[in-house]
Amino acid sequence: MSEAPFPVTPAPERRPRLGYAMAVAAAVLWAVNGSVSKVVLTHGYSSGQLALARSGGAAVGLALGLAVLAPRALRVRPRELPSLALFGVAGLALVQWFYFLSIHRLDIGVALLIQYLAPLLVALFARFVLHEPVRRRIWAALCLALAGLALIVDVAHGVTLNGAGVAAALAGAFAYALYVLLAEQAVGGRDTVSLLAYGFGFAAAFWCLVAPAWSFPAGRLGDPVSLLGRLDGVHWPVWTLFAWIVVAGTIVPFVLLVGALRHLPATRVAIAAMAEPVAAALVAWAWLGERLGPAQLAGAAIVLAAILLAQTAR
If we measure between CA atoms, which residue out of 65, 92, 51 comes closest to residue 246? Predict the structure, then answer.
């Protein structure tokens, strides 16, 4: 039997309710981060520059935390590096890049609707590639969640779609599904924080090749910028927005989501994370002044019902 790609650690006790709480909390933080990121992109930073700052900042923050609190967790064997690199580049780096590309060209709700085809891809992979049983309630929950997302975006009244944005969002769906599947495999053998520290490290290395660090406009980080929408009159330095993106929009939610995979299968974690578009619609309404009518509220209720339905499937 071949060795696992990550060093084996004892399996923790599985606590499904905790797993759902962690996944939903991650989704809410990502929802807020979408609006923060859109403000940064609107003020002249590119998708590559934003992804580089996010990955590099997260890698440094996680590594420093481990160096102080659990330095032994940073140990890595040479044979682990290919798997960690795959997780960092194919999962973390590409998910961020395609997401930023899509929200730069599409409304956040539309981009998320397309990207959240990922849970369906995860379920299809589990059923037809891994030949794992996927209960009917999971399929029903997926269909309900996608229908709810469609109501949130209000596709019945038509939306203006940018071709490049749609392509980026579809690519993001595949990258997100791959990220969840790779993370599910990895958490069985390495602690969550060190896994993400190395993953973001490889993602940052990837971005240094795509968007070299010396091209990053660091001199503009102190410039005050408008928060747009209902907060148009409020101005914050750019560095505060990047600080949010790195800490509350990256480190905390990724630790929560990967940690949730210790308690739930990938399919259920992906469904729970579909709370993100619901929260994103609420944030966009409260912050950016986007419309939130009866259809959007009904869609939010349907998505939440789908998450609860998935939880009832044993």
Answer: 51
Does residue 276 form part of some domain? no
Q: Supply the range of the domain harboring residue 25.
A: 16-134+160-221+230-264
Q: Which amino acid is at 104?
A: H
Residue 225: in which H helix or E strand, if any? strand 224-226
Counting the structural domains of the chain, the total is 1
CA 178 to chain centre: 12
pTM of the complete model? 0.76
Helices H, strands E: what count in the chain?
14, 2
SS3 state at 78: helix
Tell me what pLDDT residue 2 has.
36
Structural tokens at position 184: 């599910």
Element (H, E) at 148: helix 136-153
In a domain, 71, yes or no: yes
Residue 153 lies in a domain: no
Element (H, E) at 201: helix 192-210
